[in-house]
Structures are given as C-alpha cells and as structure tokens.
Amino acid sequence: MRIFRHRIVTYFSASIFTSILFFGILTINLQYEIRELETVEDPNLSSQKTPNICKPVTSFGFVKNHKCGTMTLTTMFLRVADDHNLEIALPNNSAWKIDWPDPPKNLSPSRKPNRKFDVLVLHTMYQREIWDKIMETGYKRISILRSPYKQFKSYFVFFQVDVIVRYVNSMSDQGFDREKSQFDQFLENPEKYYNYMYSATKNVQAYNFGYNDTEKLEEKDRMENLFVKKLENEFDLMLITDYMNESLVLLKEHFCWNLKDVLSTFKNEKRRSVYYIDEETEKRREEIYRSWASLDYKLFDTFNKTFWRKIGKINNFQEKIASYREIADKVGQFCNHLLNANRQNVENKERVLIIDQNKNYWRENFTIDEKFCTISALKTINYVPKLQMARYGKSQPKTADSFLNSRLQKKGLPELFGGPFPWMRRRRGLNF
Predict the structure, then answer these.
(1) Structural Rg of the chain based on CA atoms
(2) Which range marks the domain in which residue 316 is found?
(3) What's the total number of domains in the chain?
C-alpha cells in the first residue's frame, strides 16, 4: 500500500526595483517551486513501483473442492494470510479440515476483538448463513471448479474407488469381472455403488457447495437450475482448474494482490489416466458420466462461461498472462533447484531470486527466498500444524478421513485411510 504526500511549496519573493526605461514600472518576480509526488513505501507490504488503484481484498472464504488443484491454492492462500497477519479460521480438532462434510463448527477462537475471521480456506462445507456469522463483514466468496470427468478420474484413482468396485462385485451373484477395469465397471452401472460412495462419485463438486441430491426425479432439473443460480448470486469469483495460470492472473486482478502473492511452486502436469485407452473411448465414458453427474456439468459450464467473460474485461490480458507464465516458470525452477539442493545437502550459491520491475508487466520489485520456496512446497496437512503452533501454541493430529471411513464401515467395507490397509496411506505419502 502506498502513501502519497503532495507537497507544494510556493516561494514568493518580490523585489521592487526602479526601471529607467520608458515608463518606470515595478516588476514582481514570482518564483514557484513545485515538488513532484513523494512516494513513501509501507514496509509491511511488498514493494511496487506503480500506485495501487484498488484496495486489496483481505477477507475471503474459499470452497475447497477435492482434486481440483486446491492444495496448491490453499497453501498459497494460507501463506498470503500469514504474511499479512490475517486471522485464519483453523480447526481445533484436525490438521486439514474444518468439520467436513459438515459446515464449520470446531474452530480455534478468533484473536480479533469482534471474534470474526478474515480467511476460511480449509476443507469445510459451504453454508452461507454459518459462513456469514464467522466471517468479517463484506468478505468475498470464491472457489474453483474442474472439468467434471477429469475431476472424477482423479478422484477415482486417488481415493482408490476401484477397491470399492472390486469388493461390491465380489459379493454379488455375478462375481468379479476380470476382463474389464473397475473404472469401466463403475461407469456401466454407477447406481450400483451409489450408496457406498455417495458424494464421492456423483456431483461431488456440487456436494461441497451444500447440494443434497434428495429431490424427486420430476423436480431434479428445476432444483439443479435454482442451485446454480443461487451460487451465481452468492460467489464473487469462480476459478477453473483447467486454466490455472489464467485463474491466478484473474485472481490477482480481482483481488488487487501483488504478483508475489499469486505465485507458487506448483507443477501443472498433464498426465493421462491409468484408465486411458483412446480418445473415442474417453468421449464415450464422459458422456456416460455426464448423465450421471449432470449438476456438476451445469456448474462447470455456467461458471466456465462466466470465467471467460471476466477475463474478456481485463485490459491487456494476453500480455499479463505471458508475463505471469514467464515469472512463474523462473520462480518454479529456482525453488525446485534450491529445495533439491537442500535435500541433498548440496551447496547452492543462489539463495535469493530477484524479480526486477522491468522484467514483469506490473513493474513490481520483489524477492523470492528459501522461506517462500519452503512454505509454497508444503502440503496443507503439514502447513496447518505450523500455523496452529505459531498462533495457539499447539497443533492438532493429522487425522484420517473419518467421513469416508464411517460410510464404508456402515457397509461392512474396509477403511481406505487406515485399519487393514496402511499401504494405501503410504502410497499417498501421508505422514500419519
């Protein structure tokens, strides 16, 4: 934030002298000295060479959708909030979620006089009335969506839904079909597994916004349309995972944040699913899933159009996205090199990356150091305990996904996050 002081100092000097010329005139010499604007930097915020023409957003709630690149965004949001000493809603019984799949309730107390929070970004359910009670007045509501079929494939692999499919089929009269993948078996009859994995395979993105798929069939289409309209009215910004770089530039513009705030060390890797066969098969599968998760497609199609409309209103967006990509690549390479050197105990001479104002569109000066790289590379489940310890003097255990486990236990199925399958935890790199 810049403070501008306009100092105009006027010096008036009058000298009266006698002229011997034709009319004897008194001449007054006026001298004016006008000083240029003096800029005083606020040491609490990142430096910039161009004045802010908007006010940075410092209070927002983020609906964290599963398998939508939200771990990267959550770490980024937490880092920005911590850097600017914003009040973060942190759980008092977990290291990664706030009562999900329920609205936020078990929170460490806010340290602000009004007991409100500035930032809510961990896994929790969106419920407008509850969010309004705990968040600062005028907070922004944002989230991110992903192409539903891509999100479903990622979810299917990460949570190993194939275990459920294999188990359910092995208990049926038809037995287990070894000729087809569990992925294709699921798509052939998703209703068969619905009671086991409700909200994990059908409209899972809409579910996190509070949608409950209990309407009668004849009311389904109308209720879905009303739900989408409700979110259009309530959310200020919806990012799109499929266009992450564009999303971060859009976030910067709408939130009036510094360039450093929207940088991270994430790698936007494009990998084919293990279930990939060919494009024709993928199209057929997606059509099946579209009919199964129709609301997620309505959400995505609606907000994808809104996303590009917002981008279309940003001046010089192509120049900005090109500049962002260039800087993001430099930061990613620097941080990866630095952190790899640290892990291997190799001396790295370059400990700081200087971003010069002449090398980015926004003409911002800042530095990237080891602290930035280390924090940006943290997973949420490892970052939250550090924040809990720093702010409340204690951290919470890295608990398992009790929601999925409870649903599986009711059906007599093995837990995915513990019990007889500890190898599943190790495969995901979870440290609990």
Answers:
(1) 28
(2) 60-159+200-399
(3) 1
pLDDT digits (tens, 9 = 90+) for 356-387: 999 999 999 999 999 999 999 999 999 999 99
In this prediction, residue 414 carries a pLDDT of 53
Residue 123: give its domain's CATH number: 3.40.50
Residue 6 lies in a domain: no
12 lies in some domain: no
Residue 136 within a domain: yes
Each residue of 199-253: pLDDT tens digit? 678 899 999 999 987 656 678 889 999 999 999 999 999 999 999 999 999 999 9
**Whole-number Å distance between alpha carbons of 156 and 203:** 13
Determine the pLDDT at residue 271.
56
3-class SS of residue 336:
helix
Residue 343: both structure tokens together:
């892990």
Is residue 404 domain-resident? no
C-alpha 271/C-alpha 259 separation (Å) is 28
Which of helix, strand or coil describes residue 91?
strand
Largest Cα separation within the chain, whole Å, is 123
CB 142 within 8 A of CB 226: no
